[in-house]
Amino acid sequence: MAIIGKVCKIGVWDETVPGISFDENGMSNYAKLYNRLTEAYPRGETGKNEWNNIINKIKNTNKKQKYNCIIGVSGGTDSCYLLHLAKNVGLKPLAVHLDNGWDTEIAVSNIERMTKQLDIDLKTYVIDYSEIKDLLKSYMYAGLPWIDLPTDIAIKAILYKIASNEGIKYILRGNDFRTEGSQPNEWTYGDGRQLIDVHEKFGKVKLKTFPNYTVGKLLYYGLIKKIKSIYPFYYIDYNKTDAKKILMKEYGWQDYGGHHHENIFTKFAITYWLTEKFGIDKRKITFSALIMNGEMKRDEALNALNELPYAKDQLKSNIDYILKKLDLTQNEFDSIFKNPNHTYKDYKSYEFIIDKFIKYSAPILRLIFIHKPQSLFQKEMRKNTQK
What structural domains and CATH numbers belong to the chain? Predict the structure, then answer.
């Protein structure tokens, strides 16, 4: 989707991005948010020292256990490189994969290659497909932008559950704001309470085994079990392009295309559903981050945005496959696609709790999170911009 309206002079954030504003020099508040995050989590010598401290802390926790950290793996660049990194610094990771029935063959192959060659144990949690299918369809009927939220929720819940069962205190995550950017809450926000509300309104299958992640579980795992999430790429000099080259050369890892294209439904949600139904192009966020991280030229990003995010000649066959797996007819899908669009504010969620008690819950948040959530940085940025 091409640029619409004013565009940031630094990245390619434009007026389609919710809450965007520009200073007198044409720099957007999202570019400033990126800089704020890099100041909060510096790399270089400071980041290296912090990462080394984290490594030592992990190694000194439950020394006699088989595993001292857990890594969620999708078969993508970030999670696979994280396996490589953890093993090379002497950690004892347990790899965990969530199978929601939509993995690509490349993703499965990448996971097998990495875990076998690195001699890392792998646990695969397979979701009851009738339940995840019903949830994904529920989100589509709900008219929400981010219809793959049930998968995100399940991944988080399973990582904490397995960490708790195994007595593991640290979860290593492959997220990196420097290469992914900060997605506007309007595009991707969702939580366990929202999931329950959406499913009650549109679901047809009783959820017996689906691993939801609620505020209660967040408090239990964070405060009682003292399990912490760590983002190593916040500290080390991680470059996604270089990481791909290392994975290909050392493990025979295969590239799968765009960001999160290792999962068929996720790819559909990002490239088609968001773009064609909501006019949302998440590439504007990702490309902007890559520009500021020095991995992409701005002109290259602008040219890429003039191209569709999906292969037009494969569109019909891809949608046919999606509909078949979801047990939807073309007419049902067309009807869903024409339904009114909604935002996360149209459904119940925990957001009001976050907004209302954020000032008073800071001490509790520090006990749960080692890193301040990106969403809070974004809320502060947008609140200050509106003043």
Answer: 29-386 (3.40.50.620)
